[in-house]
Amino acid sequence: MAGSNNPRPRVACEVSAERVVAARAGAGAQSLEAVSAQNLAAGTVTPGLQNANIGARDALVTALRDSLAPVAGRSRDITLVIPDASTRILLLDFDTLPDEPEDADSVVRFRLKKSLPFDVDASAVSFDRYAADEGVRAVVAVTPRSVLEEYEAVVREAGYNPGAVLPSMIAALGVVDGARPTMVIKVELGTTTFAIVDQNQLLLYRSLENGGTVVTGDSLVDDVNTSLVYFEDRYGISVDRVLVTGVQSAQALQTAFGSSNIQVEDLISSSLAGAGAGTVARPALAGVAGALVS
What we know:
Among the domains are: 58 residues; 90 residues, ATPase, nucleotide binding domain (Nucleotidyltransferase, domain 5, 2-Layer Sandwich), CATH 3.30.420.40. Helices cover 28% and strands 32% of the residues. The two termini are 19 Å apart.
């Protein structure tokens, strides 16, 4: 997404279909020092790739101001976290990629045109690359520019500068120890997203529509097993930890694993949330915590 070479802001704000959450990192960026949230009425934000996302602009601007004012202080630079449904994340493999960023961008965009149902030339594209077994892998984030500009514009109207923009799951991965094989499951209204990391690399990313229904450990079992089997077949690596957020009755998922050595844990621990989280539910903190806490 968008970004700069400046040090990352100490304030982050996530906009979702359900709420706005703003947070400030504590000393040493080990926990959240202050958090403020405002619930949104249905239809205020409807995340997606091909239609306008913001249905009630004035209400969203007000929620942004009311959430950010208690935590931002004099700071006007923030990291903005947007819904997963507003961005496509793809893992693309190449034999090689040019060293020059502009040349690499052209190669990535050409590849994207074959796989996306919207205009890549009218989209914001960012990517990270790393060496793979056979060439180069790129983790690519694509957001229609009209959608990205919607979110950035309301933040600016609220009086703040979105210096960096991250999709919610990508932000949330910031709190994950990616050195060991780990699955992360993040549920938000309308979307359930799965990611698997290992050796500090994103190796699997999968986003599914959930129809806005409650997602429980029981309802996730089949999708989790499908992702795990695919991952283990492709990489020959077994996942032994599953981190969840936004999942109701996650213990049912642990039970489904039976005698296996997979451990299901909350993505956002109480220590990570910090005393500043107050009454804001921990699942709502995943995006801002990942954007701020190291």
